[in-house]
Specification:
alpha/beta, 20% strand, seven-stranded mixed sheet
């Protein structure tokens, strides 16, 4: 992972002091914490004053931009457990993306007699022991001996999926959980940002779109940008310019000059009824 403070770019070979030289002290204090609390409260209690201003800003940016966390709600202990192991666990990606896995599972399920009903939004679930019935917005009814509910956390919290009898305990548990909103941006380059493109490049910066990563299987030419705050409608009118400015700063030069634009396409692909899902505004090809 490359951490880039404001004004630094990849030509500066990165700067692992993005979270400040106080990273070690931060980790120690997080580990010692006995009573969990939201990370903004934790930072305000243990890292106060101008001495730690840069650290506080970096921690909040990292939590929001990398973990998509609400700093007023996210657990300090949970962040410590993740950050303390950063870089230790080996990560794997499916060549060609996860669509291949989905297609395989669909095919295997259909071989076993399963049927899929798309564009059939379920509004209510009627259930009792040994029987469950799903009722869609169009009035269709599907009955089975049981049901696995995989609706997003946002849908469950909004109450847009009704259960009869009510499952109050589950609803209350869902309200205690959190999730983040995000705009996901895909940028395809004619050549990679770095010559060494056989490994994943993961960048956390202080730019408008702070988080970017590559995938080694495509030679590092496809970059994924991660912009927290996808619930802001204004993001959709500015994301192309914002992405261009951010990548130019990270690359250390005008990204549109270095990589000739071939085609600009895509559009907005969002369904806010999903609640909490990623919002993907499309792809720029450079």
């Amino acid at each position: 992972m490359v951490r880039l403070p404001k004004g630094k770019n990849l030509n500066d070979s990165g700067d692992n002091t993005f979270l400040g030289g106080d990273w070690g002290e931060l980790m120690e204090k997080m580990e010692e914490l006995e009573q969990d609390m939201p990370v903004d409260q934790f930072m305000g209690q243990y890292f106060v004053g101008e001495r730690y201003q840069a650290l506080r800003e970096s921690v909040f940016r990292f939590a929001e931009g990398y973990d998509l966390a609400d700093i007023g709600r996210v657990s300090t202990k949970a962040l410590y457990n993740e950050w303390a192991r950063e870089g230790e666990d080996e990560e794997y990606r499916l060549v060609g993306g996860y669509q291949g896995l989905v297609d395989f599972l669909v095919l295997e399920c259909e071989k076993m007699g399963c049927r899929f009903y798309f564009s059939s939004r379920v509004e209510s679930v009627l259930w009792r022991s040994g029987r469950a019935e799903a009722v869609t917005a169009g009035g269709e009814r599907y009955v089975a001996g049981g049901m696995v509910v995989t609706a997003s956390l946002g849908v469950l919290q909004a109450g847009s999926l009704r259960f009869s009898p009510d499952i109050a305990g589950h609803r209350e548990a869902a309200l205690q959980l959190g999730y983040g909103s995000v705009v996901k941006i895909l940028v395809e380059l004619k050549r990679p940002l770095r010559e060494t493109s056989d490994q994943t490049l993961f960048v956390i910066s202080e730019e408008e779109v702070p988080t970017w990563w590559t995938q080694p299987e495509d030679g590092g030419r496809l970059l994924t940008g991660w912009l927290a705050g996808g619930e802001d409608e204004g993001v959709f009118t500015t994301w192309r310019r914002t992405a261009g400015r951010s990548l130019s700063a990270i690359a250390g030069g005008n990204i549109f000059d270095r990589h000739r634009r071939i085609e600009e396409g895509g559009g907005r692909f969002a369904d806010h009824r999903l609640g909490g899902a990623s919002i993907c505004p499309g792809r720029i090809q450079l």
